[in-house]
Amino acid sequence: MILYLFDIDGTLLHAHGAGREAFDAILLAQHGLTGASEGIRYGGKTDPAIIDEIFAARMGRAATAAEHAAFLAAYLPALRANLETGGVDVIEGVGFALAWLGTRPDVVLGVATGNVRAGATAKLAACGLDAWFKGDYIGGYGCDSRVRSELVGAAIARARERGALREVVVVGDTIHDISAARANGATIIAVTTGSDDAAALASADFVFPSLRELPAWHAARFGDGPYGP
Ligand SMILES: [Mg+2]
Prior knowledge:
Number of strands: 8
Bound molecules: magnesium ion
CATH superfamily of the largest domain: HAD superfamily/HAD-like
Distance between the termini: 19 Å
CATH architecture of the largest domain: 3-Layer(aba) Sandwich
CATH class of the largest domain: Alpha Beta
CATH topology of the largest domain: Rossmann fold
Oligomer: single chain
Strand content: 5-15%
Structural class: alpha/beta
Order of helices and strands: EEHHHEHEHEHEHEEH
Largest sheet: 6 strands, parallel
Helix content: 40-55%
């Protein structure tokens, strides 16, 4: 099978800062930090790594396990509330690409995201993309590892339990998606719909302006479907 691992934020959807605002509100409530996220880039990073980065920048130390747990307990309700108020937009071309790939019998759709699993689920559900990622779909998450290459590896290992993989294609919007894919020997497609531009993403195997390009690329590469030979 051909496994696709999609990053979520900036690749499939825009959550309009719902996560960042939740981080700031919780870090203010729990640790008295004002503007905790100021100057910190979230794109491509895992939730636990962002917590540690904020702790290091604002308090000069790492967060303890108890502090991570307290943060996550508060994070999910805050994230869900922000998603409800701010809305979530599916990025142009994503619905088209997932609908096309979703009909291929040898394609498995999964995610590789820095979000913790419950956060990923909430974001996908808030814009209807959970239709493509149901039940025990393949995923690697920020709760698997704070290191992105490891969570991509976790997703690939889960897929291998279900069958042989012909190719793994990671799709993401940041340099971190590229390095994590490389570390796992995956093909990397970068899209310029998120936080990094085409110049920053030039080391990807392929760079697309949107995922509308993906079906034609897939058909050309794998010889499958109406675009293919
Ligand atoms: Mg992203």
